[in-house]
Specification:
heterodimer; A: about 130 residues; mainly alpha; B: mainly alpha; about 70% helix
């Protein structure tokens, strides 16, 4: 929960950082696009049933760390802001991962490949156990 | 036989309405009421924006971004593009929240298995709505260099509905999968004709 909220804060910060720190151009546009995306992914992942959505903040964070170099930021505060927010977002992915509730095998149990696999087989207890279905 | 099998697979061993392998029933009112309340709040915000956009009311709550709401709701190219349609973007948002609330209310506490169709329609409204909200949140500063407080509030509400709503969708999808495995018609189970 805390890891998700910290990532949300990093994303929200990026939305308003251009106005607060006074930078424009590619840095401004990039932060205003990836800030809300990262914040939204982290926010949705607060709920246990969609905790896996937190993995979305990893590529967003990595991109935010790389963006100053790739897009050639020329504003020091924008560079620092993007790198710190990116590191926070990427790192948050690996914290607060525990899921205490049970969801019958989760989303993996309804993946299309599973549908195909379960079709010809009789209702096997082993597979059910793997899916967490009792 | 199929009916007995279905009951056995759809209910937990203790006979409760908790989906097999779940720690709680996602269709209880305790789970659904917060989503319905969120949809009502989102609907109020969107309705206010729609009335302001159509110039039916002249004031709108904008404590943080000056002319932000006016810039985005009345004067942006995105909103003006909707003038070609019979309904504006804000009114469309209000209808979306209404759909969320209505599909959240319909059905009892066993609807994850008795009415998979309404659960999946509910999820189909809530999920994409959240994605659209993120897109609109990006549009505000990137295209119009401003923010709109009620639009941001609406976006937060949309995102906050996803987590609590999709657990029920997952339970219904798992139910369909189990019934499919037991040789039942997914179509009939989807419409609650077999459960």
């Amino acid at each position: 929960m805390i890891a998700r909220l910290v990532a949300v804060a990093a994303g929200v910060w990026l939305m308003f950082a251009p106005a607060v720190l006074g930078y424009e151009g590619a840095a401004e546009t990039n932060d205003r696009i990836f800030g809300p995306i990262g914040a939204a992914l982290a926010f949705v992942a607060i709920w246990q049933v969609v905790r896996a959505v937190r993995w979305g903040t990893l590529p967003v964070g990595i991109w935010l760390v790389a963006a100053p170099l790739v897009l050639g930021y020329d504003h020091t505060e924008a560079i620092i802001s993007s790198i710190i927010a990116g590191l926070v977002m990427a790192t948050s992915t690996f914290f607060g991962t525990q899921v205490t509730g049970s969801f019958g095998g989760g989303w993996r149990s309804v993946f299309p490949s599973r549908w195909k696999r379960v079709g010809p087989r009789p209702a096997g207890a082993g597979r059910r156990a793997r899916n967490g279905v009792r | 036989m199929t009916s007995a099998t279905s009951t056995a697979t759809a209910r937990a061993p203790d006979g409760s309405d908790i989906p097999p392998g779940w720690s709680a029933n996602p269709s209880t009112w305790r789970q659904r009421t917060p989503i319905i309340v969120l949809a009502i709040f989102g609907g109020i915000a969107a309705t206010w924006l729609a009335l302001y956009q159509q110039e039916i009311v002249d004031t709108v709550w904008e404590p943080f971004f000056g002319d932000g709401t006016t810039d985005i709701v009345r004067e942006s190219s995105f909103s003006q593009a909707f003038e070609r349609f019979p309904i504006g973007d804000a009114a469309l948002g209000a209808l979306g929240y209404l759909a969320d609330a209505v599909t959240g209310v319909i059905g009892g506490t066993r609807r994850w298995r008795t009415m998979p169709w309404i659960v999946i329609i509910f999820g189909a409204f809530v999920g994409p709505f959240g994605a659209i909200s993120v897109m609109l949140t990006i549009f505000q500063p990137v295209l119009y260099d401003n923010f709109c407080t009620l639009c941001l509030f609406s976006g937060i509400v949309s995102l906050a509905m996803i987590g609590p709503a999709v657990d029920e969708v997952l339970a219904s999808l798992q139910h369909l999968r189990r019934e499919h495995r037991d040789g039942k018609s997914v179509w009939r189970v989807f419409w609650g004709l077999e459960s």
